Amino acid sequence: WSSDVCSSDLVPHELNDLIFENQKLLYNLMFSCASDTLLTLCRDKKHMGATPGIILVLHTWGQKLNFHPHL
Q: How many whole angstroms separate alpha carbon 39 and alpha carbon 50?
């Protein structure tokens, strides 16, 4: 997945129903986008110039216990 498609770890709440119905596909997409973005930026000599270790955690609920997927 290209990092230009994915610009944030948060998704608009309007997509929550779609994400809920397609969790496997879209959670994988969220992880791919987040890791690709981090790796692209960190490997760039303007930023870090190195490959970082990455740990991503999926949170599926917000503070009010509403469905709110984010990394």
A: 9
Phi, psi of 59, deg, nearest 5: -110, 130
pTM for the structure as a whole: 0.75
Shortest CA distance to 42 belongs to which of 27, 31, 53, 26?
53
What does the pLDDT look like over 47-63, one tens digit per residue?
Answer: 999 999 999 999 998 88
| 65 touches 52 (CB < 8 A) | no
CA 37 to chain centre: 9
Residue 31 has pLDDT above 90, yes or no: yes
Distance, CA of 71 to CA of 63 (rounded, Å): 14
CB neighbours (10 Å) of residue 20?
12
Length of the chain: 71
